[in-house]
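re: that chain from earlier
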Amino acid sequence: MNGRDRTGPVSGDSVRQNQARGRHRARRQKAAARAGRDRLYEIDLLRITAALAVVFYHYTFSGYAGHLTRVAFPALSTVTRYGYLGVDMFFVISGFVVLLSAWGRRPHEFVISRIVRLYPAYWVAVTVTAIVAVTLSRGLFTVSPAQYAANMTMLNPLPNLANVDVVYWSLWAEIRFYLLVFVLAWIGITRARVVTLLWLWLAATAVIEAHVLPAGLAGQADLIVQSQWSHYFIAGMALCLIYRTGFSRQLGAILVVAYGNAIYQAINFAHRVSARYHQALHLPVVIAVITVIFIVAVLIALRVTRRLGRPWFAVAGALTYPLYLLHAYNGFVLFNIFGGVLNRWVLLAAMVVGMGCAAYGVHRLVEARFAPRLKRALVRLADAADRGLPGARHRAAAQQRRAGELAPRPVPAGPGQVPVRAARHADGPAG
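^ sequence. v structure.
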């Protein structure tokens, strides 16, 4: 018995819908196949480098300077105290790769991709850190049930509940950035719209920094503007446009303004870090690191570094997010437990390697296995919700037309290069 006998006559609309779905699936499969070829392995190397910079900053400088551990590394800390700038690099990378991965995706697809990328490893990290804090920290860190529950949503800053681990603050910045990209995905991502958003974002940042708004209004506006970090996300998005469409004077101007504001904010932040830990930070070093971050990111966007990429960089890059989530408070507790037993250098090496192994375990057991199941469940849920809403058939047809209109086009490649398309890539510490 054939399909017509079982289901009755098939309408022309149903046939066209099935054909459209088939074409959409084929495009998705081709895009997935291209992602491996187009992956920016250099960014994976930058991500793990930034993560290790943050790890050494905490283990050899801020832990002792902040009275969280008793193990000191006075000579090494003169260098590693600048490791907090690894987070600055994360934000540039996020601006670049999140926009790159959102291009051509429908809004709900973008939301699902971010949930799947952020939450599974995060849930494990929050749970492990909370258990370690309660059972092993000897009162150094405390976690209440309400704090734990709020942290599991990643929205605990809204009710002003403290993070279970200090490093989670950057995730709140990432989520607010994702909201802007979601709006772009909703209206349709085009080069012109992105450029307009970047100029408006720079202008809003200048208004916040000029202190011309009432304090209450400025604070509310800055929830979205993020004037302390906006320049990094803006620079990353501009670099994404350069990577996709080539360099232009307008994008160059955006980068120059973003770089200038990055230096301004980095100097202010360096003063605050110095005051917090009563340790000197040399501003020329801070400026030099920010400058190197921008130069390297520009070289990647211009595809100068593609030949330097190696597939194994992706393996190291995959450890970035779980390593970032797990290392800080858990590491401080272990430093205090073993600090009087092991040689400090042996302990430092063991901690870095051990946290790397823990990150690999979370990646393999949680991100690689559970995350795809979560994605399938969320896709089914979104499809069911979409089918249940009025006008689903017309909306699906419109989405198909929109996907065809806004799908990313190949960028002309240089001699000996394959065309560059929108690669699916991890971002920032959030991956």
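The mean pLDDT is 87.
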